[in-house]
Specification:
The protein is built from 5 helices and 14 strands. It has about 190 residues and is an alpha+beta fold. Strand 7 and strand 8 form a beta hairpin. The relative contact order is 0.19. The model has no long low-confidence stretch (mean pLDDT about 95).
Amino acid sequence: MSDLSGADPYKLATGLIVPRPIGWIGTISADGAPNLAPYSFFNCVSGAPPTFVFAPARSARRDTLDNVHEVGEFTINIVTAEVAEAMNMTAASLDAGVDEFEAAGLTQAPSSLIRPPMVGECKANIECVVVDIVDIGHPENGNGLVIGEAVAFHVEDNLLDGTRVDQAELRAVGRHAGNTYSNATDLFDLDRPA
Protein backbone atom coordinates (compact mmCIF):
# COMPACT_ATOMS: atom_id res chain seq x y z
CA MET A 1 0.00 0.00 0.00
CA SER A 2 2.85 2.40 0.71
CA ASP A 3 3.81 2.28 -3.00
CA LEU A 4 0.32 3.36 -4.09
CA SER A 5 -1.03 6.89 -4.30
CA GLY A 6 -4.18 8.76 -5.26
CA ALA A 7 -6.84 6.54 -6.81
CA ASP A 8 -4.48 3.56 -7.29
CA PRO A 9 -5.81 1.52 -4.32
CA TYR A 10 -9.40 2.09 -5.51
CA LYS A 11 -8.51 1.05 -9.08
CA LEU A 12 -6.86 -2.15 -7.89
CA ALA A 13 -9.72 -3.04 -5.54
CA THR A 14 -12.47 -2.44 -8.10
CA GLY A 15 -10.49 -4.18 -10.83
CA LEU A 16 -9.91 -7.32 -8.78
CA ILE A 17 -13.20 -7.75 -6.91
CA VAL A 18 -15.38 -8.54 -9.93
CA PRO A 19 -18.10 -8.82 -10.84
CA ARG A 20 -19.66 -6.81 -8.04
CA PRO A 21 -23.44 -6.85 -7.61
CA ILE A 22 -25.10 -3.48 -8.04
CA GLY A 23 -27.33 -2.08 -5.33
CA TRP A 24 -29.62 0.36 -7.13
CA ILE A 25 -30.70 2.24 -4.05
CA GLY A 26 -33.93 4.21 -3.81
CA THR A 27 -34.28 6.72 -0.97
CA ILE A 28 -36.41 9.68 -0.05
CA SER A 29 -35.54 12.87 1.82
CA ALA A 30 -37.32 13.98 4.96
CA ASP A 31 -39.28 16.47 2.84
CA GLY A 32 -40.32 13.80 0.30
CA ALA A 33 -37.83 14.22 -2.58
CA PRO A 34 -36.99 10.82 -4.17
CA ASN A 35 -33.45 9.76 -5.04
CA LEU A 36 -32.05 6.82 -7.00
CA ALA A 37 -28.38 5.86 -7.36
CA PRO A 38 -26.36 2.69 -8.09
CA TYR A 39 -23.66 1.36 -5.75
CA SER A 40 -21.29 -1.50 -6.55
CA PHE A 41 -19.96 -1.46 -2.99
CA PHE A 42 -23.03 -3.56 -2.15
CA ASN A 43 -23.89 -7.06 -0.96
CA CYS A 44 -26.03 -9.41 1.13
CA VAL A 45 -24.29 -10.17 4.44
CA SER A 46 -26.85 -12.26 6.35
CA GLY A 47 -29.82 -14.44 5.55
CA ALA A 48 -31.54 -14.48 8.94
CA PRO A 49 -32.83 -11.83 8.79
CA PRO A 50 -31.87 -10.88 5.23
CA THR A 51 -29.39 -8.04 5.73
CA PHE A 52 -27.77 -5.92 3.06
CA VAL A 53 -24.97 -3.36 2.97
CA PHE A 54 -23.97 -0.61 0.59
CA ALA A 55 -21.30 2.03 1.03
CA PRO A 56 -21.72 5.47 -0.53
CA ALA A 57 -18.63 7.68 -0.53
CA ARG A 58 -18.65 10.53 1.96
CA SER A 59 -16.46 12.76 -0.28
CA ALA A 60 -18.87 12.69 -3.25
CA ARG A 61 -21.74 13.66 -0.97
CA ARG A 62 -24.90 12.53 -2.75
CA ASP A 63 -28.45 12.59 -1.51
CA THR A 64 -28.47 8.86 -0.69
CA LEU A 65 -26.33 9.05 2.44
CA ASP A 66 -28.18 12.11 3.74
CA ASN A 67 -31.53 10.41 3.09
CA VAL A 68 -30.74 7.16 4.90
CA HIS A 69 -29.53 9.20 7.87
CA GLU A 70 -32.73 11.29 7.87
CA VAL A 71 -35.39 8.70 6.96
CA GLY A 72 -33.77 5.36 7.84
CA GLU A 73 -35.24 3.41 4.91
CA PHE A 74 -34.22 2.42 1.38
CA THR A 75 -35.16 0.18 -1.50
CA ILE A 76 -32.86 -2.16 -3.40
CA ASN A 77 -33.82 -2.43 -7.05
CA ILE A 78 -32.19 -5.38 -8.79
CA VAL A 79 -30.27 -4.35 -11.91
CA THR A 80 -30.94 -6.63 -14.87
CA ALA A 81 -30.15 -6.37 -18.57
CA GLU A 82 -33.50 -4.68 -19.22
CA VAL A 83 -32.74 -1.70 -16.94
CA ALA A 84 -28.94 -1.45 -17.23
CA GLU A 85 -29.01 1.67 -19.43
CA ALA A 86 -31.42 3.45 -17.08
CA MET A 87 -29.28 2.47 -14.09
CA ASN A 88 -26.25 3.97 -15.81
CA MET A 89 -28.16 7.25 -16.33
CA THR A 90 -28.78 7.48 -12.57
CA ALA A 91 -25.04 7.12 -11.89
CA ALA A 92 -24.47 10.71 -13.05
CA SER A 93 -23.73 13.31 -10.43
CA LEU A 94 -26.99 15.19 -10.82
CA ASP A 95 -27.72 18.31 -8.82
CA ALA A 96 -29.19 17.83 -5.36
CA GLY A 97 -32.93 17.47 -5.50
CA VAL A 98 -33.02 16.26 -9.14
CA ASP A 99 -35.47 13.36 -9.53
CA GLU A 100 -33.37 10.52 -11.01
CA PHE A 101 -36.51 8.47 -11.64
CA GLU A 102 -37.81 11.17 -13.95
CA ALA A 103 -34.42 11.89 -15.53
CA ALA A 104 -34.00 8.19 -16.45
CA GLY A 105 -37.64 7.73 -17.55
CA LEU A 106 -38.43 5.32 -14.72
CA THR A 107 -41.62 4.65 -12.80
CA GLN A 108 -41.75 5.34 -9.05
CA ALA A 109 -43.59 2.31 -7.68
CA PRO A 110 -44.85 2.75 -4.11
CA SER A 111 -43.30 0.48 -1.49
CA SER A 112 -45.67 -1.51 0.71
CA LEU A 113 -44.07 -0.88 4.13
CA ILE A 114 -41.60 2.00 3.78
CA ARG A 115 -41.58 5.50 2.26
CA PRO A 116 -38.88 5.36 -0.47
CA PRO A 117 -40.15 4.30 -3.90
CA MET A 118 -39.09 1.26 -5.89
CA VAL A 119 -38.17 1.15 -9.59
CA GLY A 120 -41.33 -0.14 -11.26
CA GLU A 121 -39.40 -1.51 -14.26
CA CYS A 122 -37.31 -3.89 -12.12
CA LYS A 123 -38.06 -7.61 -11.93
CA ALA A 124 -37.24 -7.62 -8.22
CA ASN A 125 -37.11 -5.06 -5.41
CA ILE A 126 -36.39 -5.23 -1.69
CA GLU A 127 -37.68 -2.84 0.97
CA CYS A 128 -35.21 -2.24 3.81
CA VAL A 129 -34.96 -0.39 7.11
CA VAL A 130 -31.61 0.97 8.27
CA VAL A 131 -30.07 -0.93 11.19
CA ASP A 132 -26.83 1.06 11.41
CA ILE A 133 -24.54 3.39 9.47
CA VAL A 134 -20.83 2.99 10.16
CA ASP A 135 -18.14 5.39 8.97
CA ILE A 136 -15.29 3.41 7.43
CA GLY A 137 -12.01 4.32 5.79
CA HIS A 138 -10.42 7.75 5.52
CA PRO A 139 -12.29 10.47 7.48
CA GLU A 140 -12.81 12.59 4.34
CA ASN A 141 -12.54 10.11 1.47
CA GLY A 142 -13.97 7.00 3.08
CA ASN A 143 -17.47 5.61 2.95
CA GLY A 144 -20.58 5.33 5.05
CA LEU A 145 -21.41 1.63 5.40
CA VAL A 146 -25.22 1.44 5.45
CA ILE A 147 -26.62 -1.75 7.00
CA GLY A 148 -30.27 -2.53 6.35
CA GLU A 149 -32.70 -5.37 7.02
CA ALA A 150 -35.30 -6.49 4.51
CA VAL A 151 -38.93 -5.93 5.49
CA ALA A 152 -40.45 -6.94 2.12
CA PHE A 153 -39.43 -8.67 -1.11
CA HIS A 154 -41.12 -8.07 -4.49
CA VAL A 155 -40.18 -10.63 -7.16
CA GLU A 156 -41.90 -11.36 -10.47
CA ASP A 157 -43.69 -14.72 -10.28
CA ASN A 158 -42.02 -16.08 -13.43
CA LEU A 159 -38.62 -15.84 -11.68
CA LEU A 160 -39.63 -18.02 -8.74
CA ASP A 161 -39.84 -21.72 -7.99
CA GLY A 162 -40.94 -21.44 -4.38
CA THR A 163 -38.24 -19.14 -3.03
CA ARG A 164 -35.58 -20.19 -5.54
CA VAL A 165 -34.80 -17.53 -8.16
CA ASP A 166 -34.26 -18.63 -11.77
CA GLN A 167 -30.85 -17.05 -12.37
CA ALA A 168 -30.96 -17.34 -16.17
CA GLU A 169 -34.36 -15.65 -16.29
CA LEU A 170 -33.29 -12.92 -13.82
CA ARG A 171 -30.50 -11.77 -16.15
CA ALA A 172 -28.68 -9.79 -13.43
CA VAL A 173 -25.90 -7.37 -14.34
CA GLY A 174 -22.60 -7.04 -12.48
CA ARG A 175 -20.09 -4.20 -12.27
CA HIS A 176 -16.43 -4.40 -13.21
CA ALA A 177 -13.83 -1.63 -13.41
CA GLY A 178 -14.34 1.61 -15.32
CA ASN A 179 -17.27 1.43 -17.75
CA THR A 180 -17.34 -2.38 -17.89
CA TYR A 181 -20.32 -4.52 -16.84
CA SER A 182 -21.19 -8.18 -17.27
CA ASN A 183 -24.33 -10.25 -17.68
CA ALA A 184 -24.78 -13.01 -15.10
CA THR A 185 -25.99 -15.48 -17.72
CA ASP A 186 -22.84 -17.54 -18.39
CA LEU A 187 -23.66 -19.96 -15.58
CA PHE A 188 -22.18 -23.29 -14.50
CA ASP A 189 -22.77 -25.64 -11.56
CA LEU A 190 -20.32 -27.24 -9.14
CA ASP A 191 -21.56 -29.82 -6.66
CA ARG A 192 -20.41 -29.04 -3.15
CA PRO A 193 -18.14 -31.68 -1.61
CA ALA A 194 -19.87 -33.96 0.92
